[in-house]
Every structure is written in C-alpha cells, then in structure tokens.
Amino acid sequence: MITLDLELKDVPGELIRALTPISNMGVNIFSVIHLREKKTDGRVPVRVVINDIDNELLTNVINKLEEMDIVITKVNETIRKTDIDIVVVGHVVDTDVRDTIDRLNKYGIVVDLDLSMPDPFKESSARMKVIIETDKLKDFCNELDKISKEKNLLFIKSF
Amino acid sequence: MKIILVGFGVIGKGVAKVIESKKEYLKSKYGMDLKVVAICDRSGSAIDENGLDLKTALKIKEETGKIINYPEKGTNLSIIETIRSIDADAIVEATPTNIETGEPAKTHIIEAFKSGKHVITANKGPLALYFKELMDCATKHDRIFRYEASVGGAMPIINLARDTLAGNEIKEIKGILNGTTNYILTKMEKEKLDFDTVLKEAQELGIAETNPHQDISGLDTAAKIVILANSIMNKNVSIKDVKVEGITRITPEALTMANKSGYTIKLIGEVNKNKLEVSPKLIPIDDPMNVKGSLNVAMLNTDLAKEVVVVGRGAGDIETSSAILSDIISVYLRIKNE
C-alpha cells in the first residue's frame, strides 16, 4: 500500500477532482481520510491510500496531480513538501520586496503575503507562507541569512 | 554532610533559607544531617565546623550586607582560602554569573575539586565557556559535579535527561529558557504595547535587570543552550559557537501578524545535530511550548520516548535553590553509599 498526503483547496468538488485521475490511471483507492482540522490558509489535508504500484506509474500519478495544482506533501514516510511560515520585520517594502520574493521563489513558492506598515518611517512587518521541498530547506535558509544581512531584515521562522 | 556556601547574594540566601526550612525533612527522609560549615561573600567568611546558624547568617546579611559581621565566626579569610582550608564534602557555588570570563566561579570550582570537594552550582558562566575543562577537572579529581540549577531554575532538565530518560538518545532540545524575555513577549502580545514600554515595566517589577542586555540579546539563552548541548547531547561547544538573535526588533505588529497565521513569537534556544541557535521563532498557539509570562519550557526529542516537554519556573531564589537542594541530596546519597 502507498500513502499519499495531499493538500486540497477547500472548494466543492476538489476531492473528486483529485481522485478521478488516480482512478483513471488504473490505480485502486483503498481509503480516503481527512487528516486533521483545516489548515489556517484554507487548504484541507487528505490522506489517500492506494495499492502498490511501480515507481514509474507513481511518478506519473504525482506529476498529474501537481499539474492540477494539488500539493502532495508526503509519500509514505517521505516528506516531499512542507509549508513554512515566516514573519519578516524591517523595511520590507523599501528594501525591494519584489526582489526578496523572487530570490525566495528560487527554492520554494511564496504564497500568501500580508503586509503591515504602521508608519512609513518605522519598520514594518510582513508574513508569508512558503511551500518548499524538504531537500531545498537548507539552501532556502542560507538565502534567508544572506537577504537578512543585506537588507537588515529579521526573519522569524516557524521551523 | 558538610557544605561551604560560596556567594551569599540572591541565590546563596535562597539556598540558606531552603536548607533551614528543610532541616527536619532531610533528616527524617534521608538520614542527612546537613551542615553549612562556611558561608563566603566579598567581605570574608563565617566559619563554624559544627555548622553555622543559618537564621543568624541571613539576619546579619540583611542588616549589614556583610557575612564577616557574623558574631564570633566572621573572618576575613578569602573565598579561595576558605575553599582550600575548611573541611567539607562539597561547595555550593552561587556567585554572580559572568558570561564573558566565567570568573571568579571557574577558579572556585577548580579549587574545590583540587581540595577534594564535590561541586554544586547554579552558575552559568564557567559552564557556558569552559564545560569540558571543568568536567575533565572533576573526573581527574574523582569528584561529583552537579549543575541542574544553572539551566531553567526549578524546571528539571539536566538530571531529567541524564537519569530519568537514561537509555534514550536525545536528538534535539528546544526551549524557552529565559523568563525575562518570555514575560516581555507575552505582555507585548497581550496588550499590544511596544518593546521599550514593556521593558521599562519589567524593570520596575524586578523581572528585568537594570542592565537587561544579557536577557534581551539572547546571550543568557545562548549560555543555557550551550550547557544543555554539552551535558545532554555530548557536544563540545561554547557560547561563541551559538548563532544568536535577541528580541529587540520584535514589534507588536509582528506579533499580530504571527497571531493571524495561528502563531505566537517566542525566543527559542535550539540544539540538534546541525543547529545551535537562539532566535525568535514562530510557535503555533496551541503548541505545548507556548507558555506564558516568565515560565520556562523545554522539549527533549528522544528516539524512544519521542517528545518530552517540561514546564517550570525559570527563576526565583527559592525556586532555583530547589534545584540546588536536589543536587545536594543527590551528592549525599552517592557519597553515603561509597
């Protein structure tokens, strides 16, 4: 048996949309379990248990799902993607926020940026969520350190 | 059992109060007749091989600030001379911490080992800077060295990992180890006040020191995470190896941002195979690590028992002295059986 942990958008029909291609590729679905409470950004974690298939078919299934914008966070025990949250303190916008995001996007995907600027001359705060493959985490951290030094930004991480 | 109390400030006095209040309990539960045969501070030492009267010692210190004024037993013998010449089983080293040099505590500890005495301490300085050297010195002189009170105050951590979790491999330690900064962050979050305002209030309440630098810069947490890394995870690191970021840049807006995503911000000390750092981190609001006020918390990630979390009071004279008493009892039980 193979377990796939997926994160689906919380809209009607999303579960059927995710299961259909799996079934169409000839894979048997044994069970579908909702893992825990809805995540704070509105995505729903779901565990799908399927029969044993060879690596090639498994890769095809994963690719098809990712094409459809479905996030696969775990395959069996291997954590593929994780989402991390970061709160940033500093002159976030004035230090070229576009550049900061572009640099981080090289390692993961920055989703959900929220900005708070109490006073144009004081430091501001931002929060962002980044979806990232776990094997890119170390390089991502190194890039955060670099940006932090260059732009005098404080990154408060959730990991 | 005879001990020398080195340092008679907040912690030293706390130890005296605790021993005095637990005299009968120690005798009936452990058969221990605990005598403080000398108390030293900067003015000199009070010495009585039959055991000083602790109530008198506390009174003299309160009234005159100098232990040398203890009636009849006060001398101007220095701390080092007292450690070397007075017969005792152990010293309790409770002088103020110096995180830059570790002195004079380091010298006191080494002199104690050399003169055949075991050492119990709450002092972070020498442990954060010279851990291996002190452990080697203890081994060389075949002496017991206990320092539960140096990290987390009353919160059990070092002895918990070593004794109760024996057999487990500790892969990671993460914690809130400084009560002052935890108090500040908790207050900032709850009342949406800025850092400087809350710091001032904390100083007025005595929760933050007049010079709060060590706490708010993260250095205090760094010293403690180094002690944990060396004693529990067998590393050989010093405070200079820690990547440190304090809380001075945290704003109420940052805390609100964190709350929006379901987190709070805490100053976390962390050690694992690849990391040795102190920095503000996002902690999920319903995580057991989210403790409020000036409490401390530590999470030990072990191979068998998985995650073990302890919460307790990280500071306070009586609270910290409880950890020192626990170590005194532990030394007593070991030497009794030898």
Fold and architecture overview:
- The complex is a heterodimer of chains A (159) and B (338).
- With 159 residues, chain A is of the alpha+beta class.
- Chain A has two domains: 2-79, 2-Layer Sandwich (Alpha-Beta Plaits), CATH 3.30.70; 82-157, LOR/SDH bifunctional enzyme, conserved domain (Alpha-Beta Plaits, 2-Layer Sandwich).
- Chain A contains four helices and nine strands, in the order βαββαβββαββαβ.
- In chain A, the strands form two sheets. A five-stranded antiparallel β-sheet of chain A has the order 2-3-1-4-5, covered by helices on one side. In chain A, strands 7-8-6-9 form a four-stranded antiparallel β-sheet, covered by helices on one side.
- In chain A, strand 2 (29-34) and strand 3 (43-50) form a beta hairpin.
- The longest helix of chain A has 15 residues, at 137-151.
- The radius of gyration of chain A is 18 Å and the shape is elongated.
- With 338 residues, chain B is an alpha/beta fold.
- Chain B has two domains: 2-153 and 317-337, NAD(P)-binding Rossmann-like Domain (Rossmann fold), CATH 3.40.50; 161-313, 2-Layer Sandwich (Dihydrodipicolinate Reductase, domain 2).
- The mean pLDDT of chain B is 95.
- Chain B is built from twelve helices and 13 strands.
- Chain B is 43% helix and 21% strand.
- Chain A binds chain B through residues 40, 85-87, 89-90, 114, 116, 118, 123-127, 129, 154, 156-158, and chain B through 245, 249-251, 253-254, 256-258, 260-263, 265, 279-284.
